[in-house]
Amino acid sequence: MATRQDVNAPLLITIGAISAILVLVIVVGVQAWFTNEEDQEIAKKYEDAPNVWLDNLRLEQKTKLQGERWINRDQKIIQIPIDQAMDLIVKNGGNLPSTQPAAAASASAR
User: Fold this and answer.
1) Helix (H) or strand (E) holding 99
2) Pair 78, 68: CB distance under 8 Å
């Protein structure tokens, strides 16, 4: 007596398709999870690491703004700290201080 076994092709195709979709979803999900974790790690390293170039730039700018230095010796232009400049403006009643020496100002008044 011969036993006949029929293959249920539609069932096999359905199981194969569902398995392929499931594997694809798992792969995409694991890749997305990995990328998310990697981005978080990079962001944490970036936050923890000092930006030496930016820190040096800010320090240089701060020292330039708070220090006194000659801008142009021929024209006698000197840079002074911002606080000192504001005090001079307040002392002069809101007027800018004279940039000409007193002798030159009196000679031009004649």
Assistant:
1) none
2) yes
DSSP assigned state of 100: S
Report the amino acid identity of residue 69: R
CA distance 30 to 23: 11
Could you tell me where the beta strands, DSSP code E, fall in 14-76? 69-72
As a whole number of angstroms, the distance between CA 67 and CA 38 comes to: 44
Distances (CA, A) of 7 to 3, 10, 33, 41, 81: 13, 9, 39, 51, 91
The structure tokens listed for 54 are 């930016």
Does residue 88 surpass a pLDDT of 90? no
Nearest to 105 by CA among 39, 97, 46: 97
12 phi and psi, to 5 degrees? -65, -40
What pTM did the predictor assign? 0.43
